[in-house]
Amino acid sequence: MSNLSVNHLLGIKNLSKHDIELILSTSKNFKEVINRPIKKVPSLRDITVANLFFENSTRTRLSFELAQKRLSADIINFSASNSSVKKGETLVDTVNNILAMKVDLIVMRHANAGAAIFLSKKVKAKIINAGDGAHEHPTQALLDAFSMQEKLGDLKGKKVAIVGDILHSRVALSNIFCLQKLGAKVKVCGPLTLIPKYITSLGVEVESDLRKALEWCDVANMLRIQLERQDTKYFPSLREYSMMYGLNKELLDSIKKKIVIMHPGPINRGVEITSDVADCDQSIILEQVENGVAVRMAVMFLLAGRQGD
């Protein structure tokens, strides 16, 4: 069976282990493609993709756009800041107007959790969730898993610490679902004010001491503080946060083993991670960016393959 069990990529929660493994193995093939002298394949020729970004994005939007170009798709780019949404048009009306132009696939980022799920019930096109509020960011979790597999092989039994603002992070939730389905163990670490109360019900352990989390894990995924989503103060100051939960070279070198360092970006250098850690040989941050293109190519290719279903 080489089909996805879903018609949309709305979140990792909806995917089976087989779906995840299929996406990751397909990503491997596309990574070879993007490292060839001629980086284009005709896999999505005659498929039209609309990128709908209702929230600011640099890496994710560029990564999707490059993936679409590598697959020879036709692309429509939509930015809410200069659209009719500003005039009061609804999300469904906006999308239906775009679909009237015969769009097959929609990549959407939205500030409201559940926006992609809502839309998938209202329109006929395939939807890929490129991040919805503090809910999920499935392609980020898939590229993170792909990057870990490249470094560590099979993730079964591997230990991953997710450090930082878990409460406001869509990356954390998608990563937890993805890693657990692949058999990895997950701990979260950060100030208790930034750890959601329900997190232990997902089978995740909480560690409030960064050193202990680092000594336990094989991989440390460092998340940024999401100041734009915080409506109240969760800790005294960024300086204090950095002293307690920032990863610096001195701390990293004092850990007895070589752990893999990851970050979904954008990095706030000097807050959650120092420059000498971000740029050190244990960091795979730039590999994550490269792998993001291959993974997004795989997701769009597999969803478009179900076009006739």
What does this protein look like?
- The protein is α/β, with parallel strands linked by helices and 309 residues long.
- The chain has two domains: 12-136 and 289-304, Rossmann fold; 138-285, 3-Layer(aba) Sandwich (Rossmann fold).
- The protein contains eleven helices and nine strands.
- Strands 7-6-5-8-9 form a five-stranded parallel sheet, sandwiched between helices.
- The chain is globular, with a radius of gyration of 19 Å.
- It starts with 16 loop residues before the first helix and ends in a 5-residue tail after the last helix.
- The mean pLDDT is 92.
Number of helices: 11
What count of structural domains?
Answer: 2
| Secondary-structure element pattern, one letter each | HEHEHEHEHEHEEHEHHEHH
Major β-sheet annotation: 5 strands, parallel
| Lateral arrangement of strands in the main beta sheet | 7-6-5-8-9
The first-to-last residue Cα distance is 15 Å
What is the number of beta strands?
9
Overall spatial form: globular
Radius of gyration: 19 Å
Share in β-strands: 5-15%
Q: Mind sketching the topology for me?
A:
Layout: H1 17-34, E1 48-53, H2 59-70, E2 74-79, H3 91-99, E3 105-110, H4 115-120, E4 126-132, H5 138-152, E5 159-163, H6 170-181, E6 185-189, E7 205-207, H7 210-216, E8 219-222, H8 238-245, H9 249-254, E9 260-262, H10 275-278, H11 285-304
Parallel strand pairs: 1-2, 1-3, 3-4, 5-6, 5-8, 6-7, 8-9
Helix pairs in contact: 1-5, 1-11, 2-11, 5-6, 5-11
